[in-house]
Structure formats: structure tokens, C-alpha cells
């Protein structure tokens, strides 16, 4: 790989983040409000996605249960991507498309939030998880890309779709990570106020 190729990746990522900021600020703020309301009412956040998006789910849950940038009590968040026994049992006995929806049915309650991450918006198991969450009167925050896919068509006005306006998966994932950090910061500020002391 040449230096020019490396610089191209950095430039494309930086340019997309600046362009996306204008489009995504409102849905990110809405996502913070949705999650803040749930956490304030004693509810929890469940998260699901595949591949890099699964890693983002775990990153998000770790920031809430541990901390983001300030010391605070743990907040209830759970990645549905981590229990290999559940995932392999459901995948084997039922189908891979149900590995998250069955967990939403088991752990999700009215007032909880599902963080559904899919760069295309079309991941079958994430789509089924969204369907299960809506059936349980949970709110959904979707991190998608491209045109939002099937997930974008499923959401209600009470949900939030943070859809990155790009076609390339790597660039979408990079904005998803920045979005997760924005949400974590927003939750901390909404729950505890003020800015982090440097």
C-alpha cells in the first residue's frame, strides 16, 4: 500500500465525518434522548449487530457498564453478540436469523431500548431483532448506512435511525464508532450534567 492510498483513506473518512455531521446531529440527539429516558426510568439497553457491528455493540455496552470519560455508577447495557452458547444453540436449533430476536424476547421489556447496528440496514437477524423489540414496546435506535435498508422502513416516529450517507462499509463503520462516542457522551451529560474535567 502506498502513502497516497493511506492518505486517501484518511481524507475520505474525514470528509464523510464532516458531511455526515450536518445530517446526523438531530438523529443522534434523538437517540440520546431515547436512551436517557429509558435509563432514567430504570430500563436497559440491548445491542446487536454482525461482524464489525458486533464489536461496536460490545464497545458500546462496555462504555455504559464501565465508563466513557467520567467516573459514575454503571449503566445497564448488554451486547447480545457475546454468549456463544446462546448464539450457537439458537443458530443450530432454529436459524441464524433468530440469534438476536430470541434474546430480545428473553431479556427485553417495554421501555427498554434496542441498539440495532447494520451498515446496510438489511441484516436479517438484526431486522428480526427490531421486529421483536417493537412487538415488546421497546424503542429502537438504529445505526445504518446507505439508504437505511429494511430497518429504516420498520421504525416508528418514536425511534431513531442514524443513517450514514455513504455506500462503503468501512466508512459507515467509522462514522458508527464516532456516533457511539457521541451517544455515550450525550448520555453522561444528560444523566450527570456538565462537561468532563480535563
From TrEMBL:
Biological process annotations from GO: carbohydrate metabolic process; D-glycero-D-manno-heptose 7-phosphate biosynthetic process
Substrates-to-products reaction catalysed: 2 D-sedoheptulose 7-phosphate = D-glycero-alpha-D-manno-heptose 7-phosphate + D-glycero-beta-D-manno-heptose 7-phosphate
Principal place of residence: cytoplasm
Record-linked PROSITE patterns: SIS
Entry EC no(s): 5.3.1.28
GO CC annotation terms, alphabetical: cytoplasm
Binding site for Zn(2+): 59, 63, 173, 181
CDD domains found in the cross-reference section: SIS_GmhA
Superkingdom, taxonomy of origin: Bacteria
Name recorded for this polypeptide: Phosphoheptose isomerase
Species assigned in the record: Sapientia aquatica
Gene (name only): gmhA
